Amino acid sequence: MQITHSDVFPVEIKLRQPARMAHLPEITQITAVFVRLVTRKGQSAWGCAVAHPDLTGEQPADLLKACQDGAAMAPDLHPTNLEYSLSQLSLACGNSTAAKCAFDLAFHDLLGLATGLPVYRLLGGYRSSIQASATIPLSSVVESVELAQERAFSGFKVLKIKGGVNPEEDVRRVQAIHRALPGVILRLDADGGYTVQAAIDVARALSDALEMMEQPTPPADLEALRQVTRQSTLPVLADQSVSDPHSALQLAAGHMASGLCVKLARCGGIRCASQVDAIARAAHLDTMVSCIIEPALLISAGLGFALSSPNVRYADLDGHLDLTHDPSLAGFHLHEGWLVASDEPGLGCRVQMDG
Fold first, then answer.
1. How many domains does the chain have?
2. Burial 308-325 (b: 16+ CB within 10 A, else e)
3. Are residue 98 and residue 136 in the same domain, yes or no?
4. Angle in degrees, CA 264, 265, 269, rounded to 5
């Protein structure tokens, strides 16, 4: 198997409804850059990444340039020499973590095509399905309940409620959803919006309603996160505080959280996510595989990774649900709130692209 050429496709993708998160402007669209590796036999492997200043910290033009630089190198690399190939591409992509993610996915997809195996089996094959959460964005109490009921009606049994702007309002929103849907598992994601005391107060008020709390305090304030973790009545997961294996090791060594959240789109792909998960596992911390607002191809990769490790306890992989005209078509399917993998080789995702 040999790569004959590599193509890069930037795509603007709109959301059906604006995404609202603490301390960020509304997000109405994203820029995704797709990378295609074509082999001598005519097989196509795909990867992608997202550029959005508020989601990934990267500008679309920078991601596009980095992917074009990587694409120029890709035909010189051997598809099955994964570590070497990704190391070389990491150099070619420079400071763009998103571009590294795109090629990481494409080379894992290509390796799956070469072996005839889905990525989740290539990585370990621990299971073939996992229960996933659906996100409830920042909104009023009434709107939150209505959205939660819609997601529950569509099959989700786990809901992640966005908060972080007004702790008292967050408590009321969670309590209202809990009353309306007492059989649904609830999680609260404060996106770094609480003080230490507010986080502890929210955890105490919602100890009977929540499964866990995600990133309660500002990402850079690790001491605040440690204090909340030690005093909280709920498990506390670090999300934005985890950016790479180095930060994961720092969090694990300091016992600053009950678990670590990893997003392929932010950390650079499957290879980096595996390193973060190994650190969490060694430290007896849970791993959560999460996402940003991203195409189904990235969700497929996150699912493949989540299914490969016994240490992954939580899956938050719904970032594709509100996208319109996503060129990637997922092979996995949702059944009663569970994401079930496809046994198609590679990432198991079809991409329909002009050009």
1. 2
2. bbebbbbbbbbbbbbbee
3. no
4. 45
pLDDT bucket at 25, cuts 50 / 70 / 90: confident
Work out the burial of residue 95: count CB atoms within 10 Å of its CB; fewer than 13 is exposed, 13-18 middle, 19 or more buried. Answer: exposed
User: Residue 247 corresponds to which tokens in the numbers above?
Assistant: 């930060």
Please report, for the domain that includes residue 286, its CATH number: 3.20.20.120
Residue 191 to residues 58, 106, 149, 241, 266, Cα–Cα distance (Å) = 19, 30, 23, 10, 15
Going from the C-alpha of 305 to that of each of 4, 33, 114, 117, 354, the distances in angstroms are 27, 21, 18, 14, 29
Torsion sign (Cα): 227, 233, 238, 241: negative
Do both 111 and 125 map to the same domain? Answer: no
Question: Is 355 a residue whose pLDDT tops 60?
Answer: no
Mean pLDDT rounded to a whole number for the chain: 94
Give the pLDDT mean for 18-44. 89
Type of residue numbered 69: D
Per-residue pLDDT reduced to its tens digit, 148-168: 999 999 999 999 999 999 999
In this structure, the answer to whether residues 41 and 61 fall within a common structural domain is yes
Q: Does residue 285 sit in the same domain as residue 208?
A: yes
